[in-house]
Structures are given as C-alpha cells and as structure tokens.
Amino acid sequence: MNFKISNAYQAESLVLIPVLKTDDYAIFLKNILEKYKMNIPNIENDFSADIKSMLILYTPTHKIALLGLGKKYEENELIRAFRFFFLKQKNALQGKIGLEIQHIPDNYLSEIVNGILLGSYDSQLHKTEKKQEKNWFLNAESEVTFYTNISKEKSIILIDKGQKIATSQMSIMDLVNDAPNYKTPKTLIEWAKKSGEINGFDVKILDKAQLEKEKLGCLLAVGNAGRVEPALILLEYKPKNSRKKIGLVGKGITFDNGGVSIKGSTNMHFMKSDMGGAAAVLGAIETAAKLQLDIHLVCAVPVAENLLGSNAYLPGDVLTSYLGKTVEVIDTDAEGRLIMADALTYLNRNYSPEILIDIATLTGSAVRTFGYAAAALLTNNEELAKNLYDSGLKTGEKLWRLPLWDDYEDDISSDVADVRNFSGKDMAGCIAAGKFLEVFTEKHQAYAHLDIAGTAFKVTEFSTMHISTAFGVRLFLDFFDKV
Ligand code: BES
Ligand code: ZN
Ligand code: ZN
Q1: What burial class does residue 115 get, using C-beta atoms within 10 Å of its C-beta: 0-12 exposed, 13-18 middle, 19+ buried?
Q2: CA within 20 to 30 Å of 412's CA: 109, 288, 337, 454, which one?
Q3: SS3 letters across 399-432
Q4: Is 263 one of the catalytic residues?
C-alpha cells in the first residue's frame, strides 16, 4: 500500500473526508458539498460527526465518505477513527483513495497514517483459510493520496513516522496475541535478536547458566517449571549523540498459570498476554531505533513461563534475589514482581540509567481499580509523574497515579526473609506490588512503575475477543520527547 501527496482530486475511487464535530460543522459540510457539486440540505441531520460515524454519498462523478472525528483533534481519536474506518471498509475499498486533510493540522499526518495502517491489522494468526481475497491492503494497486498543502519534505517525514510506529505496533500485537504453544521465552529472544539486527540495536541474552552465575535467583525460581528455560534479554540502542540514558524493564511471562498457587481456569487463556510489558519495551526500542531518536535506551526483559511441575518453586520458598535480599514466596502467582525485581536491579547496577521505568501486566488489583481505561502509575518523582501522565493523556495510553507511600511497607515485610511477595490480603494489591519492586531499584531517584494489567490485552472496538493494544509504545515515544 502506497501513500502519496497532492493538492487536489485526481480521479480516485473514493474521497474520504474526515469531519470535526465543531459547533458549526454544518457549514464545513455545506462547503464540502459545494466543492463536490452536491446539494443535500441539512446533511448534518444524517451525519453526526461523532467519532467513527460515517456517511457514504454518491454523485455522478464521485463516491465520498464522511468520517466523524468527534469534538477535537486528538492523536488517539484520529488513530481510532481511521483505524476503524479502514478495518470495517477494507473489503469494500478499491484502488486509489483520496483523503481530504487540508483542514487538519499538519503534524497529525503521522497519526492518520498510523491509524490507516492499524486498520489492516487482523489477528488471524493461525487461520488456515484467511478471508481476505478482497482485502484492499493486500492489493498492489491500493494507494492513499493525501490532499494537503504540507511540503513534500515534511510529508515524507510524517508518513514515514506513522508507518514505522504502526509496523512495530502490529509486530508486537502479533507477539501478544500469539498462542502459548507458539510463543515461549525463545520466541521473544528471537524477535529481539532479529529486530536488533535489522534496526540497529544491541541484543545480549543471559541464558540459564549465566543467570545462575550472576545469581538472578528470583527469575530462575519462577522459570524453573517452564517448558523452556528462563532468560534475561538485554537491549541497548545508543545513538551517536544522546540527550538522556533511559532504562526500561518489561515483564515477559509468556504464560502464567499461577504455578503451584494455580489460577482458576476461567479466562486463564488470557494469561498468554502476560508478556504485554515485554512487548511494550520491545516495541519502544524498535521504534526508537527506526526513528533514530537521540536518546540512549537500555532495556531488560526477563522472560519465563510460570507453570506447574515437580520442579516448580513453592509457596513458602525463600529466594535470594540478584540484589542479595531474600524473598519469602507467599504466592507463586505473584511471579511478575519476582522476575521484575531481578531485572530492575540488574539493569540499574550494570547500565546505570538516569531514568528507570518498568512496565508489567502485574496485578488483578490494577484491573479492578481502573478497568480497561487506564494503567497504574507509581513513582515518587514528581517530574517523572507529570511527564508520564501528560504523555498518557496525549497518546490516549492513559495513566493514573497511585501512591508509593511507606504506609504500605507492612504489606511486603516478612518474618523469615527480608521481604515477602504478597501480603496475603486482598487489599491495595497494585500498590503493594509497586512497593515490592521499589526495593529492588536501590532508591533510584527517577523510578516509575506502570501496571498495565487492564490495558495491554482487552476487548476493543476493533475485535470481538480480547486483543493486544500495543499499550506503551506510543506512550514511551511521546515521553522520550519530553526528557
Ligand atoms: N499476571 C497476573 C496479573 C494479571 C491479572 C494480568 C489479570 C492481567 C490480567 C499476575 O502474575 C498475578 O497473577 N497477580 C496476582 C498477584 C496476587 C497473587 C498477589 C493477582 O493480581 O491476583
Ligand atoms: Zn501470576
Ligand atoms: Zn503474571
């Protein structure tokens, strides 16, 4: 599929016109109708311009689609509207399409491209007969021409940016949506290595023997009953000139059945997505490298399967973390914080990032608190809190803050070990998990924890079942601009 720019109509099969629902959008519609030589009185009664609303009009010479954008230009709303339109229309579209965007501020071109391309995403990973004979995206003739006055140079940059982000998002969506018999720690390792080679960042793997040598006792314990051995993926993107060194850590449990503290079977299949944090980190470093951003990224992705077997770690076990502190395991289903603890300390000690952020599908508590609408943000650094919060609002990958106060320290204190991995109480679970992780950052002054349990994998308007949202990629990209 090709993108082009032009300043006017060129005999396209369809002209798509995005419409903002301003107070006087009726006037905008009237002008559009005049331009395309149509006369439809009170067209606003047939077309609300609410987000994703659509009206198709035929004239003797044109086919026109109006697409509602809602009340104001917002990155995420633009992506949503275009993704929805192209997803729903992809089997009806033909050849060349024109897109009127003269009225939309220039910079949003990258979001429009991002949205169009996400419309091509389908999660038919393992269908033997893919229903896509008529899929417009797969046709060599398909093309979108943007009617715009943006300069050629600027449009190339914006289109390229939208394409780079969307392709990385779709690649990690495939990872998250994939089945646990196709996706193991090895799959994430291979993905990272391949992406590193193609896009120009370093990838180093600590395998089981090296984890033993380096004493990452928590990661080893969690992965001990996995069908595939645990590992720590270390990734580094280092441009010639960089403004800041940022550390990212992402939870990579490729399946979580809870281990000995086994989960109930209802919805257990969702736990194939327990590597949504890892996916976000992989997607962020890949896009940062593709876009050649001037920030230095150092990332750690602990990968393991949390399964049940005779060599599984046990409730009551005391583990020795990479930090050296001992951890009493109260519940083997609180495995995420264990592998993240070792990865956080490892990254911090060996790479010394100026900012340290972790992202994980960590607790059911975060889902009960925020539903699918927002992820939890926990930090004691006000500047970091503000920047992450603002990036969340701007990208639609929203964050809302919870406290990391010492009031919650009792939840992680243990009689037999330095800390425990669960308080045993069904209270403040998301905060307790954050307090636990904080210990392993060795008082890093710019540390934030993001719990994306509710936002990484969910039912969306683009699917009938739960699918990956690629949550975190655009959030991190926007955040990198702020540091
Ligand atoms: N992977 C889960 C958290 C989760 C829940 C992610 C729902 C996505 C959707 C995590 O490993 C887990 O099982 N957490 C437990 C911790 C508890 C035993 C302290 C939880 O939140 O119930
Ligand atoms: Zn778990
Ligand atoms: Zn988990």
Answers
A1: buried
A2: 454
A3: EEECCCCHHHHHHHCCCCCCEECCCCCCCCHHHH
A4: yes
Q: What is the CATH number of domain 183-482?
A: 3.40.630.10
* Nearest ligand, measured from the Cα of 269: 1
pLDDT digits (tens, 9 = 90+) for 285-296: 999 999 999 999
- Closest-approaching ligand to the CA atom of 364: 1
Q: Give phi and psi for 120, each to the nearest 5.
A: -85, -10
Q: Whose CA is nearest to atom 14 of ligand 1?
A: 363
Confidence category of residue 132, pLDDT binned at 50, 70, 90: low
Q: Which of these ranges, 4-8, 48-52, 241-245, has the smallest mean pLDDT?
A: 4-8
Report CA(254)–ligand 3 centroid distance (Å): 9
Q: What is the CATH number of domain 2-165?
A: 3.40.220.10
pLDDT over threshold 80, residue 131 = no
Kindly report the protein residue whose alpha carbon is nearest to atom 9 of ligand 1: 453
- Average pLDDT estimate for 58-85: 96
Q: Is the CB of 367 under 6 A from ligand 1?
A: yes
Residue-wise pLDDT tens digits, 204-227: 999 999 999 999 999 999 999 999
389's CB contacts (< 8 A; 6+ apart) are 377, 399, 400, 401
The stretch 78-91 carries a mean pLDDT of 97
Q: Across residues 65-82, what is the average pLDDT?
A: 97
What is the 459 CA–ligand 1 centroid distance (Å)?
Answer: 18
Query: Does the pLDDT of residue 233 top 80, yes or no?
Result: yes
Lowest mean per-residue pLDDT among 50-59, 120-129, 148-157, 413-422: 120-129
- What does the domain layout of the chain look like in residue ranges? 2-165, 183-482
First to last CA, the chain: 35
Nearest to 356 by CA among 276, 477, 237, 444: 444
Query: Has 368 been annotated as catalytic?
Result: no
Evaluate: CB of 214 within 6 angstroms of ligand 1. no
Residue ranges near ligand 3 (ion) with Cβ within 5 Å: 253, 256, 274, 336
pLDDT of 224: 98
- Report in angstroms the alpha-carbon separations of 174 from 87, 272, 373: 17, 12, 22
Of 294, 300, 5, 17, nearest to 162 by C-alpha is 5
Asked whether the predicted pLDDT for residue 9 surpasses 90, the reply is no
12 alpha carbon to ligand 3 midpoint, in Å? 49
Max CA pair span of the chain = 81
Residue 247 pairs in a beta bridge with: 298, 356
Concatenated DSSP letters for 59-93? Answer: -SS-EEEEEE--SS--HHHHHHHHHHHHHHHTTT-
CA of 452 to the centre of ligand 1 (A): 11
Place of tokens 């580094």: 236
* From 337, 394, 398, 435, active-site residue: 337
